[in-house]
Amino acid sequence: MPARQVHLAAHFPGVNNTTVWSDPASGSQIDFASFVHLARTAERGKFDFFFLAEGLRLREMKGRIHDLDVAGRPESLTVLSALAAVTTRLGLAATVNSTFNEPYEVAGRLATLDHLSGGRAAWNVVTSYDAFTGENFRRGGFLAEADRYTRAAEFLQTARELWDSWPDDGGTEGEFAHRGRHFDIAGRFGTPRGPQGHPVIIQAGDSAEGREFAASDADVIFSRHGAPAAGRAFYDDVKRRLPRYGRRPDELKIFPAVTYVLGDTEEDAAERAAEIRRAQVGPETAIAYLEGVWGRDLSGYDPDGPLPDVEPDLEEGVSKGRAQFRGDRGETVRRWRTLAADRGLSIRELVIEATGRQTFVGTPRSVADRIDEFVQTGVADGFIFVPHLTPGGLDDLVDHVVPLLQEKGVFRADYTGTTLRDHLGLGPPRGAVRRAHAGAVS
Fold first, then answer.
1. What positions does the domain Luciferase-like occupy (predicted)?
2. Going by C-beta distance under 8 Å and a sequence separation of 6 or more, which residues neighbour residue 243?
């Protein structure tokens, strides 16, 4: 049996505390030249796609703008439309919120990107979980969380109907009518079908509902499970759901978000990785992260000292706009206290340990071998690399690891198609008529 082929994608850094802004090589997350550099590097490495996240409101900590990680970023589809002019094969993936947008507008912008890029558009479908973000749209918490998920599923269904309103074999161009719980619209869709028919659909949720949504409707999952055991369990679970929707395992690609650090030796790489983690979690970031979990002002605590002995405030808390601090914060506190006690960790050391996600650390050869091993053993179909530097963070990976994957025969030497669907080995999109699903998408 031939070896499975590795898929690679790139995430533009500049969200959370991933980027080491203090590094002399760190550049702007706003300047278009930064986007161009990373995108062209990914294309030089024959990556499948370039991924942009979305932020609909600046995060706050204790009522003030939180700029320890990033204070602003441009709108994704605008940036990707510009990148379409300076790249030729690289897929262009935008995160676009389904809670505070409308299907007609989003479907038109994505179809336009697909035309401008010659069939390279992708849409990461997400919802907004908080009324804090909604305040920017004058409708706050206008939907319960479960309803946001049903809106997202209907949003995608409606967008597919709009794209399909331009038939391949003649007929009435653009005529549509959708009658549903969240959308009641009719008219003519103004943008012809793009080269891919539908943009590639990406889903980034992890709940049971999110996994079901991905199995029924997505082409790619942006997963957080990069470690072997967790990754393999997630991979197997989602792939098992596909047959009920008449889909084969190769019709849904799973891409965990990962990082890498290279060195001349394994020891050198491990030392560099530790230095990077300490730079990513400085004293202020460590306290801010702890405050997000505890829900309290902890500015009086020493980041190199022990955890606070106060109990967490499990109400609204002091952090707004960060999905990391959702869920059972009380359980997180208990788990962190156990970890800190067992290993004698300070606040900063604990945050470094608890939030670290350095997946591939080693020499170029050992990193290439591990990437290949993870794909061959069913941990993932590929990886979305999130570099720690803007914009040159992919340079070493493309220059030193990708050639070794090509040498092993598990990664393309050149693009063999023109569209993102070609790169991913996906067939034509499924039609718009499908079972309505109430699954979560974020």
1. 25-380
2. none
28 is in an annotated binding site: no
Residues 342, 334 contacting (CB under 8 angstroms): no
Q: What is the mean pLDDT of residues 415-442?
A: 71
129 is in an annotated binding site: no
- pLDDT level of residue 169 (50, 70, 90 thresholds): low
Please tell me whether residue 203 adopts helix, strand or coil conformation.
strand
319 is in an annotated binding site: no
CB atoms within 10 A of CB 388: 21
Summarised one tens digit per residue, pLDDT across range 275-310 is 999 999 999 999 999 999 999 999 999 999 999 999
Give the burial string for 182-219 (b: 16+ CB within 10 Å, else e): bbebeeebebebbbbbbbbbbbbbbeebbbbbbbbbbb
Could you tell me the domains of the chain? 7-263+363-424 (3.20.20.30), 268-355 (no CATH)
Please give the backbone phi and psi of residue 346, each rounded to the nearest 5 degrees, phi first. -75, 175
